[in-house]
């Protein structure tokens, strides 16, 4: 008797977790760019769905190393050049902690898409919030596959873990900032990450398009 499997549909007509292949198949047939995967138990399926396809793919690539499949290798190769159809995010902090701002722009042309500023914060917090803002922005724009670039490994890690691991004191001066951090963490808990997040290769490509030019 075949073992029961659980099917995660990250992107399809109706994203969710399905307990039989026929139901899952209905969600991906005719859906361009469908993202799905079978898992041996419900716990793994629920964790994968909650973290999103981007997080699942990143973890798979990290675990596979030199034994990457052709599909995984193609994904890695795709990051060797700048994907012009994408957005880039960055943060700037005058002092650390200090006056903080972040923004998101189109990678091609650096057209500003969003911007926020706070009287006190850290650069890592700004990078984290910029990424979550980008994810939420693209969800509203119905662009669940558009890549996002960030030059912060720390922020990318925080996003995939769903937690802003800052040690900045929570007080009156940081109340507005922490309100947004709480909302960002809540958004990550409620929404799967579907957009691929790529590390910007500063040494190869120069400063990220969203850079504030203060270096």
Average pLDDT level: 85
Strand order of the largest sheet: 6-5-4-7-8
* Assembly of the depicted chains: single chain
> How far is it from the N-terminal to the C-terminal residue, by CA?
63 Å
Strand coverage percent: 15-25%
Task: Characterize the structure shown.
The chain is α/β, with parallel strands linked by helices. 40% of the residues lie in helices and 22% in strands. It has eight helices and eight strands; from the N terminus they run E-E-H-E-H-H-H-E-E-E-H-E-H-H-E-H. It has helices at residues 21-28, 42-51, 53-64, 70-78, 123-140, 153-161, 175-190, 202-205; strands spanning 6-11, 16-18, 35-39, 87-95, 98-106, 112-121, 148-150, 197-199. The strands form two sheets. The protein has a five-stranded mixed sheet, covered by helices on one side. A hairpin with a 5-residue loop joins strand 5 (98-106) and strand 6. Helix 5 (123-140) crosses helix 6 (153-161). The chain starts with 5 loop residues before the first strand and ends in a 10-residue tail after the last helix. The model is unreliable at 64-78 (pLDDT under 50).
